[in-house]
């Protein structure tokens, strides 16, 4: 009888959140997220202060050979600030956190090739959004914070060692991808999709995803990227699809900056070039064809119920 009672309780618990409206559930999500985010920033600052005897990032970044603690602090902040609230909220929605976020779904090997091609072909559109963003009034918001962010990135990247390159990929690509996708796509977007039109849900989650970075010189490009990741997650039905895409995107930037800093391949990530008309048309058509292939493949695998 006790076992039956436990089983009955476990079946009821996942439904607790469902008694609340979407607005109230979103407030619960926001409260959990902001609480964890604040704690994460506090813990990260304490670690940095304890080791470097300062929280002045510009001063700390002047010594690229001694930034591993900063890297570990950033990874810890990502885990505490993004992954932890995602898991807490997922547990409130379903007794199995990975089931609610679809982190228990499979990942077909074809997507290992298809997703990088999709990212490559969507970049002209992202580049255009970068130039549009320059005209927007928010482009210079938090300018000092943006400079500090660039100082951190430059400091982390200014090291020719391959071991540091690999550590940077973990710090800037792998850990943030898992943590950010779990919170923004796996919980926020998934929550919004329960009550809202999918396109509205993807857009709102992408806006919040971009805003929380507090780096407004790339606000619109990050929204475009976030929407791509959101649709990738929605149509694939697997959180790992958007996580992989996020890793590929961030990891490629890390590698390109490394190559640029070491004079191997010159490229300016912060100032992309305006794509030519033929490039925009060619890449957009290629993206559309690849996206259609992506949807058809998922349909055959019965991973998506969407009919193009």
What proportion of the residues is helical, as a percent range? over 70%
The shape is globular
Give a count of the beta strands, DSSP E runs of length 2 or more. 0
Order of helices and strands: HHHHHHHHHHHH
Count of alpha/pi helices: 12
Q: What structural class do you assign from the helix and strand content?
A: mainly alpha
Cα distance, first to last residue?
50 Å
Taking all residues together, what is the mean pLDDT? 88
C-alpha Rg, in Å? 21 Å
Percentage beta strand: under 5%
Spell out the key features of this protein.
about 300 residues, mainly alpha, disordered N terminus
How would you characterize this protein structure?
The relative contact order is 0.12. By secondary structure, the chain is an all-alpha fold. Helix 2 (22-52) packs antiparallel against helix 8, helix 6 runs antiparallel to helix 12 and helix 8 crosses helix 10. It has helices at residues 2-12, 22-52, 57-60, 68-93, 97-100, 111-134, 143-157, 162-193, 198-211, 219-236, 239-261, 277-300. Helix content is 73%, strand content 0%. It is globular, with a radius of gyration of 21 Å. Mean pLDDT is 88; it is low at 1-14. The protein contains 12 helices and no strands.
Concise description?
This protein is mostly helical.
């Amino acid at each position: 009888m006790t076992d039956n009672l436990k089983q009955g309780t476990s079946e009821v618990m996942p439904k607790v959140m469902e008694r609340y409206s979407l607005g109230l559930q979103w407030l619960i999500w926001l409260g959990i997220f902001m609480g964890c985010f604040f704690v994460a920033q506090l813990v990260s600052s304490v670690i940095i202060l304890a080791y470097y005897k300062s929280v002045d990032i510009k001063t700390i970044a002047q010594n690229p050979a001694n930034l591993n603690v900063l890297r570990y602090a950033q990874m810890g902040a990502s885990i505490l600030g993004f992954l932890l609230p995602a898991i807490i909220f997922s547990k409130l929605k379903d007794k199995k956190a990975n089931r609610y976020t679809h982190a228990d779904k499979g990942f077909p090997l074809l997507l290992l090739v298809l997703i990088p091609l999709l990212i490559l072909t969507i970049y002209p559109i992202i580049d255009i959004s970068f130039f549009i963003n320059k005209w927007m009034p928010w482009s210079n918001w938090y300018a000092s914070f943006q400079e500090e962010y660039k100082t951190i990135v430059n400091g982390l990247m200014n090291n020719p060692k391959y071991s540091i390159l690999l550590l940077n990929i973990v710090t800037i690509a792998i850990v943030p991808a898992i943590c950010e996708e779990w919170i923004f796509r796996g919980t926020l977007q998934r929550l919004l999709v329960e009550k809202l039109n999918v396109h509205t849900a993807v857009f709102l989650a992408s806006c919040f995803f971009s805003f929380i970075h507090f780096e407004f010189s790339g606000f619109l490009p990050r929204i475009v990227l976030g929407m791509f990741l959101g649709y990738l997650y929605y149509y694939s039905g697997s959180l790992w699809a958007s996580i992989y895409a996020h890793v590929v995107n961030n990891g490629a930037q890390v590698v390109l900056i490394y190559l640029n800093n070491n004079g191997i391949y010159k490229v300016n990530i912060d100032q992309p070039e305006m794509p030519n008309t033929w490039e925009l048309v060619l890449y957009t058509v290629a993206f559309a064809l690849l996206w259609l292939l992506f949807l058809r493949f998922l349909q055959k695998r019965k991973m998506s119920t969407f009919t193009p």
